[in-house]
Specification:
single chain; Rossmann fold; five-stranded parallel β-sheet
């Protein structure tokens, strides 16, 4: 079992192109405006190992093949390093943490998207994260076709799997949200940046300082 959530740990999830990075930056800035110390993180990354794994996994030009199980293990290795070296220490110092993606991404992308065993991925995630769970997960929901249009750039290895794959991932997120309704809040991400920000803050109203 994963331990109780940390009240100062917030995660933004969703398919590629839904606006996680923008909304995470805005949320971190709002917390700072309210006088809180904030650490903004992204996955995979945030440590030298994490950034190396990020480049390896996402580089669409790489000739290295990565099996879905190996992909899940690589993401989890990056996450383990991030939690141990950065995330847990920040929470222990009393800082708020806003993270783009967490282990829910592994469940959605490698589990529901690629067919890896979600039960095993749950166990792997608990091990990798030292059982640290967020207080809230904001799921930014957007149609996969619209999300890929928004990318407006060369697609990375994961995005290149197309809308059919992203729809499986999206449906996986919906399943996860139904299993943890106390933790998840779904925000429609099709509006303007300001509209989505207001919706995110509204979804987090009961936990924000």
């Amino acid at each position: 079992m994963l331990e109780d959530s940390n009240k100062m740990f917030l995660v933004l999830e969703g398919i590629d192109g839904c606006g996680k990075s923008t909304q995470a930056k805005l949320l971190a800035a709002e917390l700072e405006r309210r006088g809180r110390q904030v650490l903004h993180l992204h996955e995979p990354g945030g440590t030298p190992l994490g950034e190396t794994i990020r480049e390896l996994i996402l580089n669409s030009g790489s000739k290295i093949g990565i099996h879905s199980r190996a992909e899940a293990l690589l993401y989890s290795a990056a996450r383990a390093e991030l939690v141990h070296d950065v995330l847990r220490p920040a929470l222990a110092e009393g800082r708020w943490v806003v993270c783009e993606r967490y282990y829910y991404s592994t469940l959605a992308y490698q589990g529901y998207g690629l067919g890896e065993d979600t039960g095993l991925l749950h166990s792997l995630s608990a091990y990798a994260t030292e059982a640290v769970k967020p207080k809230r997960v904001v799921l930014l929901d957007l149609d996969p076709g619209e999300a890929l249009k928004r990318a407006g750039r060369s697609l990375d290895r994961i995005e290149s799997r197309g809308t059919g794959y992203m729809q499986k991932v999206r449906e996986g997120y919906f399943l996860l949200s139904r299993r943890e309704p106390e933790r998840f809040r779904i925000v429609k991400a099709g509006g303007s940046e300001e509209e989505v920000q207001r919706a995110v803050l509204g979804a987090l109203e009961d936990v924000l300082p």
